[in-house]
Amino acid sequence: MPETSGSTGRTPETDVIDFRAAEQLLAARDPRGAVKLLDSVIAAHPENTAARLLRARAFFAAAQLRPAELEFTVVLEREPDNAYAHFALGRTYERQNRPDQARRHFRLAAALDPNPQYLRRAGFGG
């Protein structure tokens, strides 16, 4: 009998398949479909930071800014040195017209990773 996650009848393989399918949906510009798949993956594996980061990206792409902010924050609580999560949270704050919070996270992203895009958004480069 295959190993399942709780009473959902999900297997680890199902969760991997759903995660990969969610990546494809996000790439195909279907962020809401990605969120739906990731909801069940995260319900089964709430500690999975990669799934949370992907769901945060999907929320952002769907212009669901408050849920995106919450997910990026969870990721950063677990991985405070995640430059991409800082950058994406900065973009989320920027879209919410919260420039001071955005600037803080853009600067943290640039300090963690000298990616030219991060440096530009932080005001450190051309």
TrEMBL record:
InterPro entries: TPR-like_helical_dom_sf, TPR_2, TPR_rpt. It comes from the Bacteria. TPR repeats lie at residues 83-116. Keywords: Repeat, TPR repeat. Pfam families: TPR_19, TPR_2. SUPFAM superfamilies: TPR-like (SSF48452). This is Tetratricopeptide repeat protein.
